[in-house]
Amino acid sequence: MDACIFYVLFSSMFLTTKAFESICPIVKCSHGGPDIRFPFRVVGQQPQHCGHPGFELFCKENTTMIHFPTYGPLVVKSISYDIRKLSLLDPKNCVHEVFLNLNLSGTPFQYYYLLKNFTYLNCSTRLSPSFDEVSCLSGSRHHVYTVESSLPTPVSCRPLKTIPIPFSYSSYLADNSFGLGLTWSLPGCEDCEAKGGSCVLPSKAGLKAGCLGIEHDKGFSIVHLLSSGTGSIILNILLCVFVVTTLIRIKIYFRQRMKVDEEAENENLL
Ligand SMILES: *[C@@H]1O[C@H](CO)[C@@H](O)[C@H](O)[C@H]1NC(C)=O
Ligand SMILES: *[C@@H]1O[C@H](CO)[C@@H](O)[C@H](O)[C@H]1NC(C)=O
Ligand SMILES: *[C@@H]1O[C@H](CO)[C@@H](O)[C@H](O)[C@H]1NC(C)=O
Ligand SMILES: *[C@@H]1O[C@H](CO)[C@@H](O)[C@H](O)[C@H]1NC(C)=O
Questions:
Q1: pTM score
Q2: 61 burial level (CB within 10 Å; 0-12, 13-18, 19+)
Q3: Which of 165, 215, 265, 268 lies 20 to 30 Å (CA to CA) from residue 193?
Q4: Average predicted confidence (pLDDT) for the chain
């Protein structure tokens, strides 16, 4: 049994060392800013292995920002790791300009909210108030509207683009009141954090993310147990106990057999 305890302690020491390697410091751009951790990282403040490619953030004047090549910088308002939601704000306060230009293909992100196809119209005259005018894209001589893509184009208008945009933007909501929400997917980490695990890169060299149970502040759960070092320790203990009890059983069996043989011999002698 002593050998068992030694073996378990030794293997748990090894596992803990391995776990520490993948822990990275959590960074914030300002006191009240969102926690930045895997899969995100702040370029220049966290080592490369702390983030996943495509999730690079940067801090500018105490503000957390993300840069999209097809649009430019957007402000990161919050990051919800459990539901995988990134809430953004447009620094130019024109969310429809974001929708018109932002191309998420080639990024790990998708819109968080339900999408519906809408057409942006550029009109030379003002339409009836039942149409939603995009004031930040309109001027004194042109008026930009979003309309359901199935509607016929009014004569004074030129269609700009038909694109899927988050459904709730379509009507009555002013810019930014709804929030620009994105979600992400990482192969190997789907629903990991919602189940209490931690999505990490398993090694500095590996690129595939994995779900681990190393969490510094969360309680104990089955998912934790199964996906973490603790799970292997328990498996190790069970294996060890099984081997030891089997050895003891074999010993007892042979002792009994020897006893029986001795008795048989004694009987023969009598
Ligand atoms: C950023 O925050 C620090 C500490 O709160 C403050 O001293 C500094 O002036 C801020 N910088 C800007 C650009 O807001
Ligand atoms: C987005 O970019 C991809 C290529 O990166 C392109 O095929 C696609 O047409 C673009 N989508 C829009 C709506 O411009
Ligand atoms: C938008 O329209 C395109 C082309 O008609 C279609 O492929 C796409 O599935 C539509 N998207 C949505 C969210 O309805
Ligand atoms: C709408 O049309 C006007 C005049 O043709 C042009 O100046 C403006 O840039 C257009 N707006 C957009 C968003 O394309």
A1: 0.69
A2: exposed
A3: 165
A4: 77
